């Protein structure tokens, strides 16, 4: 929750992305932020996976009060099926 100006790039050529760090360094925070941006394609079911709690069971370590993040991404307009690149 103390992460600032952290660039993260998911390159199409890489098959594995690892998020490694010491305890309390923000690994889960990054994954929580990414989960917040997930939107399923197609018909939504009874569990539409649009809430953070759909991915992570709330507990005493997941207090997001006053937490904020910005996600910027770009994509190739010539190839809309290609995955977008997260730029910030």
Describe the protein's architecture and organization:
With 88 residues, this protein is mainly alpha-helical. The chain has one domain. It has two helices and two strands; from the N terminus they run ααββ. It has a two-stranded antiparallel sheet with strand order 1-2. The longest helix has 10 residues, at 27-36. 1% of the residues are buried. The model has no long low-confidence stretch (mean pLDDT 66).
Mean pLDDT comes to 66
Q: Helical percent range?
A: 10-25%
- Count of separate structural domains: 1
Biggest sheet, in brief?
2 strands, antiparallel
Low-confidence stretches: none
Strand fraction band?
A: under 5%
The total of beta strands comes to: 2
Main β-sheet, spatial strand arrangement: 1-2
Q: What is the ordering of alpha helices and beta strands?
A: HHEE
Q: Give the overall shape, derived from the CA principal axes.
A: extended
Distance between the termini: 16 Å
Number of H/I helices: 2
Sheet/helix structural class: mainly alpha
The Rg value, from CA coordinates, equals 15 Å
